[in-house]
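Handoff note, outgoing to incoming analyst
You'll be picking up this chain. Sequence as last confirmed:
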Amino acid sequence: MKIALIGYGKMGRMIEEIALSRGHRICCIIDIDNQDDFDSEAFRQADVAIEFTAPHVAYDNYLRAFRHHVKVVSGSTGWLAEHGEEVKRLCAEQGQTLFWSSNFSLGVAIFGAVNRYLARIMNRFDAYDVKMEEVHHVHKLDAPSGTAITLAEGILENLDRKTSWVKGTLLDAEGHLSGSDACAPDELPINSVRRDEVPGIHSVTYDSEADSITITHDAHSRKGFALGAVLAAEFTATRQGLLTMEDMFQF
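Most recent structure output, in case you need it:
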């Protein structure tokens, strides 16, 4: 399979390594300094483009790929609220294809299924309140993380007493704490921590006067994310539309 890479930072290089090890060919690499290559013959020949960039450029990258009907696998977050409906329309009405996930790790996919199942159980036990925490490296720009938001939405879909998530506290790399996790009873707070080079830790805690229950996913490296992105590209190559991890892993 011919893969184009959009974004060539640490994640892009790791994706390249794994893709090559699985017998694929990198036909085009696009980064900040060669944006014109979106219109190159090499890019147009790609079976799938894998995109890991920044929230403020992800949507434009999709449009530039869609212009040549190149399918996209993307792990960029932060664009969904503003552009989500338009991307859905492009996939439904114009035959474009985007596989999007806030996290491509198989472990996170399993964790997400456990999270939704636990929320369904806890829907019967209103003595337990729920909160979340995500920890990431100091270079991460958005807070809360896209994965935390996805996990929160999984809770909201299954826990009737919570209707929305809210941004809680942020502990930055210098140890400064901002924000607050105080919220209305029907809100789910997500607290964020930025520390060292942490690939990603996500925890969901249900707490009552009697006890507490916490589930946690702790990523050891970015390698699991990169492998998942390549697996998603292999899945996407023969499919069309707006795809997610739930399409690939049907737990």
